[in-house]
Design a protein that fits this description.
Oligomer: single chain
Helix content: 40-55%
Radius of gyration: 25 Å
Number of strands: 8
Order of helices and strands: HEEHHEHHEEEHHEEHHHH
Largest sheet: 5 strands, mixed
Number of domains: 2
Shape: elongated
């Protein structure tokens, strides 16, 4: 049955429907959509067929050396640990060899696996990874016509079409997402020297000398151009710009989305504390001089009234 599916380039429609059970995320109890994590269950025979296709696809990608070199997810001898070591090592090398600092930005793509465009994915599979003929037909059949039913207690919803995304809980889905996201590195290399990813978690980093304000501003401009102009649209609701009209000051947010004092510390209190520092500290360009001035200031504040 598995061989017939692969050789004919057809994935049966009966295998494409998933049963989804929404479960609360860790620490969440309010019945809101954002607090629920969908757990998808696929048919056993479909996962066996997927595994065969996934193994062959992975072997093809590795044999032809087209796996994104800076992607550590879903590949042998790579893990979150190797991804972390790669980034840390690059930062240490920059510090030791060039006496520079590193601007590091973490990107978290919202609903990354659920927003994959099938047409773009198929095109990338064919043009960038060289998968054609029956294998390509099978992947088209695998992605098309998928649906889900949601199960809560003993109630089951009507069938809902899924025109986007890779199947959650599948064997092949993560590898297809890696193929889909491989374009990210082509975009980044036009602006930055370094980037690394683990699935949809991406780290962009840029080394620069902090001796002058111009060097710092050039680094920020390069990073912002990469993110805003060519890579993604940054959502204002999930990020906060700490810059104020004066480049030496930080602007505390006007909203308050954090419930506890601890959560609010670095969102509200930190900018306020920074702005209260003497200008000779906040305007210091040299990192070593900055640390010495800050240490002296904090010592004087701590023992001024003792």
């Amino acid at each position: 049955m598995v061989n017939v599916s692969l050789t004919t380039g057809h994935f049966p429609n009966a295998w494409k429907e998933a049963l989804v059970s929404p479960l609360f995320k860790k620490g969440c109890e309010d019945m809101e959509y954002k607090n629920l994590r969908p757990i998808s269950n696929l048919q056993f025979v479909s996962k066996i067929t997927e595994r065969a296709a996934s193994d062959q696809t992975y072997n093809h990608i590795v044999a032809n050396n087209v796996f994104p070199p800076l992607q550590s997810a879903y590949r042998k001898h790579h893990s979150t640990e190797t991804a972390l070591l790669k980034v840390i090592n690059d930062i240490h090398v920059n510090i030791n060899n060039q006496q520079v600092v590193t601007l590091l930005v973490f990107l978290d793509l919202s609903s990354a696996f659920d927003t994959v465009d099938h047409d773009i994915l198929i095109n990338r599979i064919q043009t960038s990874f060289g998968i054609t003929d029956n294998a390509l037909l099978w992947l088209k059949s695998y992605l098309s016509g998928r649906s889900i039913r949601v199960i809560i207690d003993e109630s089951t919803s009507e069938s809902l079409n899924m025109p986007y995304g890779v199947p959650q809980g599948s064997c092949l889905g993560p590898l297809l997402f890696t193929v889909y996201a491989s374009k990210l590195f082509e975009v980044v290399k036009h602006h930055l020297q370094n980037a690394h990813a683990y699935a949809d978690d991406t780290k962009l980093y840029l080394a620069f000398k902090s001796e002058t304000t111009q060097c710092q501003e050039d680094a920020m401009e390069a990073m912002e151009k990469c993110i805003k102009a060519d890579l993604i649209n940054v959502k204002n609701s999930s990020a906060h710009n700490l810059r104020s009209d004066c480049r030496f000051l930080l602007a505390p947010p006007t909203f308050n989305s954090k419930k506890t004092t601890g959560d609010r510390t670095f969102v509200v209190a930190a900018p306020t504390l920074w702005n209260e520092l003497p200008s000779d500290i906040t305007r210091e360009n040299n990192i070593n001089s900055f640390k010495k001035r800050l240490k002296t200031h904090l010592f004087r504040e701590a023992y001024a009234n003792s």
